[in-house]
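Translate sequence into structure tokens.
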Amino acid sequence: MVFLNGDLSLLIGDSSGLVSQWTLVRDAQNRFTMQRIRVFKVSGHKILAEQRRKGFLTVDAAGVVGIYHTTAERMLIEKRVGSSRPVAVALSPRANAFVVLDSADKMHYWRVENEHPEVSLQSIWGEVWYESYPRPAYIWQSSSASNDFEPKFSLTPLLFGTLKAAFYAIPLAIMGAIYTAYFMAPRMRLLVKPSIEIMEALPTVILGFLAFLVSPGLEELFFQGDLRLWFQREWGIGYDQRNALVVGLAMGFAVIPTIFSITEDAIFSVPRYLTVGSLALGATPWQTMIRVVLLTASPGIFSAVMIGFGRAVGETMIVLMATGNTPVMDLSIFQGMRTLSANIAVEMPESEVDSTHYRILFLAALVLFLFTFVFNTLAELIRQRLRNKYSSL
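Result follows.
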């Protein structure tokens, strides 16, 4: 048995060749219990824990050394280091070297290059059972006040927050464009359309600043200064002052002009004889809109949605200032979030160059680029298919 770095977990090796990790977790009665959170299949008889990270080393009687990392839940390397039975083994404080003394009184020195052991597909995208947590979870926590903490580099809650931030503004923009192009009086349309399009010139940092200021003001005006307490008392639900609803409203000012303008032009450019013919055959205005106008204008509408979605996914300043930057996975519109772009902007200046944290931030930027690239490529293919399908109308 040996304590893992931080003394929050205990590594226990048994005679069957398994090393299990045990840690204290709270049960349903809020009492601490010992819980086994993961198991490693090893061949070693001796366990040494790293002093600075959540890794450990094992040595067996045949001289085979294995290096493992608990958070990444994987074996990093397994290699034979000598021909005789090991008598003693020691690991350097930085875990970059170890020495083995065998039964032939020979000392074997090995250098270890293992800079980023905590990274794996499981630790980045999957649920991980972290120390002292009651169950596996998606967590992003890149720093702490102590060097003994367990780094949590899950990009899943950041990707979730990115999609959540982009979701709310798009339906509002499409419905506004439909009403303006098809139902609004012509003279009113001449005023509304330029007014909405000019909103695109507003800097996003101003929109984020306004969203940052408006939420506390509304709380003070309508909810006695504590909307969280009011929601808990009246509805029994949680509420964060910087939440997805605030971001959706602020993001709308940045995204709606683009979606609105393209969608409105696509709907307004539908040939007049199609709508007149549909109405003459007895269809209602709504039936004409849904079954004739929207289908004909669908390539343009789809293009508008994709352009707006790409803008919303890459938006940084609004979500940075108005979300609270809490990397949680909650569908509630009254809870905060953190996006990939905001996370890069917040943490890149403070990350150590060439550290695991630094590299994962670059990976987040690559994921953001690939997500936008793949999404726009699929959108273009679908748009071309819609254009070919409805161009004969």
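Note: The radius of gyration is 29 Å.
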